[in-house]
Every structure is written in structure tokens, then in C-alpha cells.
User: What shape does this take?
Amino acid sequence: MDNEFFNRNAEIVAKELLGRIIVRKIDDKELRAKIVETEAYFDEKDPASRACQNGDLRSTMMMEAGRILVYGVHNNWLVNFVTDKEGKASAVLIRAIEPLNFEGRGNGPGLLTKSLGIDKGVHKSKIGGEVEVEDGDNKIEIVSSFRIGVSKDLEKPMRFYIKGNKFVSRI
DNA sequence: CGCCAGATTGACT
DNA sequence: GTCAATCTGGCGG
Assistant: This one.
């Protein structure tokens, strides 16, 4: 996936990531899964994201587009793709995937990282190495809604998912 | 340094 | 429905 794809507004990238394929490379194996649910996160003006306010995560979000950001919360790792130009703290959270060539362990942002073997080890790494994103199904219907789990959301819906997909964590 | 909260999940009452 | 597990940064003593 070209870095220019991620070098845009998080909302646009979040929508266009739906239906595409995330590839996790471990040794000689490749775990492939379709992205079915995402959320867009912005800069320090985003009340939902504590991550935007602290040092390491914030600076990671400000890095150039195409970086992988791993956020640890409670007992889970959540994956984000850094978006937009360098200096702009923006990212897209992957919330749910549809496993293609392996057995998933259920839906949800904390479970998909376990299924793909993603943890702090890939934090800050670039897309194209251990984790790759490829073109996928673009004949999908996108539904938007408010984000899940956040105490203070923005006024605009910033969660997007594929209509009718059974792997979406919540309709 | 100790305590708290947060983009969560799963086990137990 | 309730609560603990576990990681990171902010805040108070």
C-alpha cells in the first residue's frame, strides 16, 4: 500500500481501509484478514482520545503516515495506522477484521491483535514490513456511527463499518 | 512513588 | 451485573 494512501485525513483513510486486506507476516507465514470496522482519531482537540495527549503515543501519531501504532489499555493491545501529514496527530483504529486464512478469536479491537500476533513489538514500525495492507473488496456498503467505548465523543460519527458483515462487533 | 483512568475482554456471582 | 487483569501517562504527596 502506497504511503500516499495514508497521507490523508483520518476520516477518509478510515472509510477507504474498509474492505482492504491486512497482512501480518510471521516467519514464513502470512495471516490475512479483511478490515471490516474502523474508527478515526484526531489531534488534541479530540476529547475521546487520551492517547492524543501523552508523549510517546502522541509523537507516534505525529510521525509520517503509514506507521503502525500499538496502544496498550487494560489487558489488550489495540492497533492503529498513523495517518495524515507529519506533525499532525492523527490515526485510524482497526476495530474488527474478518479472518481469511486462519481461525479468528472473535471480534473486537483487543482480540484482533491477539489473532494476528500484534503487540508492542510492532509499535512504530512501518506498514510494508511485518504488517502490510493490500487492496481488497471495494464493492462494499459503508455505514457510519458514533464511536464505541469512548466517554466523550465528537459531534460527528467517526466509526465506520461494512454493512451486513457478521464480524462487525456491533451494529 | 502511589493512585487513577482509559480506544477492553472474559470469568464469576 | 460486577470485577479483575495489565500498560502507559497524568497528577498529587
Observations:
- The longest strand of chain A covers residues 29-41.
